[in-house]
């Protein structure tokens, strides 16, 4: 048994990790994959040569290089802790729940920032769902789910962009800044709870590490929406809300594009 460690310079989020898993699926000599997303490394436990593995990784154009290849008998992890699955279910439910809450309150308060943030919550929910599917389920099922999720996000992001443009060129009521701040603050607390649960698990599994990265980014977005709410009140203008909405819609569209790659 060999353990080959690859440096993958362009692997910086869960989407790339899932793309790599699907790309390497079917190689009979692979026994296990261990991802270290923060350090952009992948350890592959395999039999025989690593040449076919390296070839497939190179096809992704993620700037892959080999760090080392050594003997690694008896180092294969055979089970995934059930606790990881429970945590992923918890953060999935929290994200889908706040997707619904922020979407509803966003429309009620006329805030595109909250609507956009709700779509980011949905995007994360999709990522957590895909992470759960990594524990079980076929690659074909993962690809179909990823394709549906990506197109759905593209449609929602597109509708959001159109609405932002309409509000930029039209005369719209100024968003309710109190609702923006309160709901975004509650979402921030929810993301903080998710991040706490993920960190408490102390897992080095790629899915947990990737989820931590996404949740940390969500907290920054929540702070952006809160700041936009303060500026809406201070400037008595809807522009801060529209600007933060546009930024988040771009992020959601980018995440959808990465997820779409999973289905190819």
Summarize the structure.
The chain has 264 residues and is an alpha+beta fold.
Commentary on this structure:
The chain is an alpha+beta fold and 264 residues long. The protein folds into two domains: 70 residues, Alpha-Beta Plaits (2-Layer Sandwich); 180 residues, no CATH class. Helix content is 69%, strand content 11%. The protein contains eight helices and four strands; from the N terminus they run βαββαβαααααα. It has a four-stranded antiparallel beta sheet with strand order 2-3-1-4, with helices on one face. A hairpin with a 4-residue loop joins β2 and β3. It is elongated, with a radius of gyration of 20 Å. The two termini are 30 Å apart. About 2% of the residues have low confidence.
Keywords:
Alpha-Beta Plaits, 264 residues, 69% helix, four-stranded antiparallel β-sheet, 2 domains, 8 helices, 4 strands, alpha+beta
């Amino acid at each position: 048994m060999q353990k080959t460690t690859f440096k993958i310079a362009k692997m910086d989020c869960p989407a790339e990790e899932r793309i790599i898993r699907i790309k390497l699926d079917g190689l009979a000599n692979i026994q296990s994959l261990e991802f270290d997303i923060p350090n952009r490394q992948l350890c592959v436990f395999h039999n025989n040569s690593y040449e076919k593995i390296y070839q497939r990784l190179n096809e992704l154009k993620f700037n892959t290089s080999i760090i080392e290849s050594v003997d690694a008998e008896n180092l294969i992890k055979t089970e995934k802790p059930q606790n990881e699955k429970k945590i992923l279910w918890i953060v999935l439910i929290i994200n889908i729940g706040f997707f619904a809450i922020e979407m509803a309150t966003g429309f009620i308060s006329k805030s595109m920032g909250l609507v956009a943030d709700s779509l980011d919550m949905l995007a994360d929910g999709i990522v957590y769902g895909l992470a759960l599917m990594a524990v079980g389920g076929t690659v074909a099922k993962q690809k179909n789910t990823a394709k549906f999720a990506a197109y759905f996000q593209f449609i929602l992001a597109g509708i959001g962009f159109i609405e932002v443009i309409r509000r930029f060129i039209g005369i719209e009521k100024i968003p309710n800044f109190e609702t923006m701040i309160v709901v975004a603050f509650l979402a921030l607390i929810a993301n903080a709870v998710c991040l706490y649960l993920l960190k408490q698990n102390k897992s080095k599994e790629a899915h947990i590490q990737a989820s931590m990265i996404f949740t940390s980014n969500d907290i920054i977005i929540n702070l952006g929406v809160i700041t936009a709410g303060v500026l809406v009140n201070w400037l008595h203008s809807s522009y801060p809300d529209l600007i933060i909405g546009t930024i988040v819609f771009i992020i959601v569209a980018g995440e959808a594009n990465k997820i779409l790659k999973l289905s190819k």
